[in-house]
Design a protein that fits this description.
alpha/beta; Nucleotidyltransferase, domain 5; 5-stranded mixed β-sheet; 6 helices; 5 strands
């Protein structure tokens, strides 16, 4: 009788501590191609505030351009967390983050759960926008509006309230 082989136990993922203030730790990821476009998805670990931006590609240049715009609106985060995608491991992004005084963390390669906040935001975005009708920009705006004024299961509060204070 053959012996039954057991799978090694999975190492549990210890969720990162929720930062005490907004815009302390941001998680980012690319989505796409989806609906004919690429997107940069950014989520604040404290407030769960989402930013979704259409980007022409997943290049470092396109990523930095969007991050520059977002940071000019909300300020610089203390830490940025991403997976090991080519645009996130490039010298250009490392230099951009260094010049802005940000701590930059890459998750473990091939271990999607370690950047689960961004991965979950990508899935939430795709699932919601896929079900909507109308021009893409309008669907994104409706999704973001709805998401930002919906109490989050982790915090019990609205992302807009936690980030903006109202």
């Amino acid at each position: 009788m053959p012996r039954k082989q057991c799978s090694p136990p999975q190492t549990p993922v210890h969720p990162s501590e929720v930062p005490k203030s907004p815009w302390t730790r941001l998680h980012i990821d690319h989505a796409g191609p989806f609906l004919g476009h690429y997107f940069l998805i950014l989520v604040d670990a404290h407030s769960r505030w989402l930013e979704v931006c259409i980007v022409p590609s997943t290049s470092s240049e396109a990523t930095i351009k969007v991050l520059h715009h977002i940071f000019s609106t909300h300020g610089l985060p203390h830490q940025l967390v991403s997976d090991n995608g080519p645009s996130f491991t490039s010298q250009e992004i490392k230099k951009f983050m260094s010049l802005n005084g940000n701590r930059y963390s890459l998750t473990a390669p091939y271990y999607l759960r370690s950047n689960s906040l961004a991965e979950r935001a990508v899935q939430t975005f795709k699932n919601a926008v896929r079900k909507m009708e109308g021009p893409l920009q309008k669907r994104i705006a409706r999704f973001l509006f709805s998401y930002r004024i919906t109490p989050q299961s982790i915090t019990g509060l609205l992302p807009a309230e936690l980030l903006m204070g109202h």
